[in-house]
Amino acid sequence: MEFEKFKTMQFPRDVYVGHGVLANVVPVAGRYMKSGSIMIITGKITYDLAGKEVQNLLEDAKYEVHVVKTDKANTENLEKIEKSAADLNLGLIIGVGGGTKIDLAKKTAYDFDVPFVSIPTSPSHDGIASPRASIKRANSTLSQEAAMPIAIIADTVVLAKAPFRYLKAGAADVISNLTALLDWKLANRLHGEEYSTSAAAISEYAAKELLEKCHLILEGVEESVWLVTKQILASGTAMAIAGSSRPASGSEHLLAHALEMSNPGQSIHGEQCAVGSVVSMFLHGGDWQGLAAAYRRMGLSIRAKDYKIPDAVIINALSTAHSIRPERYTILGEKDISTNAAEKALEITGII
Ligand SMILES: [Zn+2]
Predict the structure, then answer these.
(1) Residue 253 alpha carbon to ligand 1 centre in Å
(2) pLDDT single digits (tens) 153-179
(3) What are the tens digits of pLDDT across the range 250-268?
(4) How far is the CA of 166 from the centre of ligand 1 (A)?
(5) How far is the CA of 243 from the centre of ligand 1 (A)?
(6) Dist. CA 178 → ligand 1 center (Å)
(7) How far apart are CA 246 and CA 187, in angstroms?
(8) Are residues 123 and 177 in the same domain?
(9) How far apart are CA 12 and CA 24, in angstroms?
(10) Same domain, 106 and 255
């Protein structure tokens, strides 16, 4: 048989991470913008945090800059942004914000085929370095294909201003790669799904690095932000190599999505992933106690009560989470888990 295997990988070209790297937005614009103007997609708070500075830096360098302040990542806001983008000759789109602004920016950049720069203001999840965007439709938040950032500028001075809760959540999003990897291996064994050893190795390294250094994830310490952000970027690299979110998204993410859909506003993504990873690790027969201990050490609760999630909601979420993304095979299987079994797993792991 002839050799026919091939792979496509897309990586960010420039990654700036660390203290005071924000000013690099000017050389980045110089490098990747052919013509036209720049759109900064940001939010009210994140504009004050970093958006304004980015705007000033670019305007001082004589770029024409349009600032769009938006809100939630839903189809309504996306349409509004795209409507205003359609009238402009854009050469670069910059997302300055937490998850939602980055998601809107990377989707707009994808739809207009314009280079996209990611400037995160919160280290709360691994979307800052991935080509997927979660845009809310009527009642689902499935992730969609979007632009891979051409450059990422993750300034720890900016990121350190985000509430500590976001940093812990970002760390949990990376630590929960461990169960995503077990799911991926399972899908490979049972369904022959393509598995990338190199992507898995990087993803595992990122997760273990934070698991082992969880005692160094501290409030108000810029170096803690550095520690977590580097591994968020490593997680992004793993996804880029795999060409999918597989190395960083398995059953724990299915549960996170199920929780988000049934009970929005109580817990943030990384916290849902933390909860998901503990019960998923239990189902895999792995060291779920070790995971729970690391989260405890960081001061991140895995108790549903602490997020005001009723027992019945999380039991139902665990039992039906498999159906959210049926093509993504995980330990949750292909049928609903019985309510009794789901309840038992959540009780044993101390989630309910
Ligand atoms: Zn995630």
Answers:
(1) 6
(2) 999 999 999 999 999 999 999 999 999
(3) 999 999 999 988 876 689 9
(4) 12
(5) 16
(6) 12
(7) 10
(8) no
(9) 15
(10) no
Containing structural domain, residue 134 = 14-159
- Cβ atoms of 38 and 63 within 8 Å: the answer is yes
C-alpha span between 322 and 331 (Å, rounded): 9
CA of 4 from ligand 1 middle (Å) equals: 32
Q: What's the CA-to-centroid distance between 132 and ligand 1, angstroms?
A: 11
CA of 87 to the centre of ligand 1 (A): 34
Mean pLDDT of 54-77: 96
Between the CA of 341 and the centroid of ligand 1 the distance, in Å, is 25
22 domain residue, yes or no? yes
Tell me how far apart the alpha carbons of residues 184 and 331 are, in angstroms, rounded to a whole number: 9
| Residues 100, 105, 108, 109, Cα dihedral to 10° | -150
Domain count, the chain: 2
Residues near 62 by beta carbon (within 8 Å), at least 6 away in sequence: none
Angle between helices 339-348 and 311-320 (to 10 degrees): 110
Distance (Å) from CA 265 to ligand 1 centroid: 16
